[in-house]
Every structure is written in structure tokens, then in C-alpha cells.
Phosphonate degradation HD-domain oxygenase (Streptacidiphilus alkalitolerans), 198 residues
Amino acid sequence: MPQPATAPLDVLADLFAGEGAAEYFGEEVTQAEHMLQTAALAEATGAAPALVAAALLHDVGHFGTLTAAQGGLSGDVLMAGTDNQHSRTGAAWLAQWFGPEVTEPVRLHVAAKRYLCAVEPGYFGRLSEASVHTLRVQGGPMDSSQAIAFEAGPYAADAVRLRRWDEQAKDPAFASPPFAHYLPLLAGLLSTPSAAAG
């Protein structure tokens, strides 16, 4: 029996309230606070709804219970030194309901960190201690050929914008809107069965 269209939003709301309340790998915010702050920063710049959604959902791949079907592993594995491929597994899970304008920036946000560390002087110095650690685990800064290939991708610019908000979204004093604030935006981006087939 098909799930109702609201099912993924209910799952996400439960995850933000549940697993999302856990610490965010040594940062001063929880995982949900980090994701909500990233979305709030995107929204404040007037980003398109799909990019706001990508900002909100960029780290869903750290929710191991959500992405297990895609081979997902928890963020604890990443901090222990094994790349949990959270950008890939999160994007794969989201692709069941959202189009590439949401899922591709999610899939590319780790690559965008590697890209920015390679091409932008001083970017590495803005990384938190946890981001420096995960950068090493995720392959380190790109080499020149990787950077050129990344730049050529159709969603590279969105992924870079998302990455910049991601780095800023670790402020314990930042008051972001709750997950419910984004429900209408997310509902408007859900793929319809006919759109998914086309």
C-alpha cells in the first residue's frame, strides 16, 4: 500500500525531534540545530525554496536509522575515522520524494568543502575542529583536476552556497525557526507520482 505524500515529512519531523537532538560531533549545537541554522541562513539570503530545503536536509545522511536502506552509517562512524558517505546516502533517501534541485546540493555538500579548501585561500582556516577532522576522513582538499570537474557540474554553485551556510551554522546563540516552519516549503517541493514517473 503506497504511503501518503506527507509520510516523508512526518518521518523527517520525528528525526529532527529524536535523533536530531543528539550532539553534533563535538560542536556546540545539536544536529537538528545545525541543520535548522543552515536553512535559516539560506532563507535569510533569499535562496530559492529548493536550496533552502537542501540546506535544511543536508545532513539527513547522518541519521543512520533513516539511511540504513541505502547502506547509511551514523555520524559516529565518521568521527571514528570511516567516511559514512552521508551526503550520498542522504541524497539517495531524499530522492524518493524530492527532485535534483534539492538532492544534488545535498549530495555535493561534502565535495564543496573539499573544493573550497582547494581553491579559496583561508577557507580551511574557517573550519571547526570537527570539520577539519572530517575533511581528512572524506579525502582532503581536491586536487586541480577534481576541482575543475566539480566546477563543471550543474549544481556546483548551489553546493558551494550550501557549504558556506553549513560552516556558519554552529552558533549556540543563533535562534532559528523550528522544523515546522519549513513544512509548507517542503510540502510544495515533494514530487508527485506523475512527476516522478516523467
Remarks:
- The chain has twelve helices and no strands.
- The chain has one domain: 7-193.
- Residues 77 and 125 are 24 Å apart (CA to CA).
- The first helix runs from residue 7 to 17.
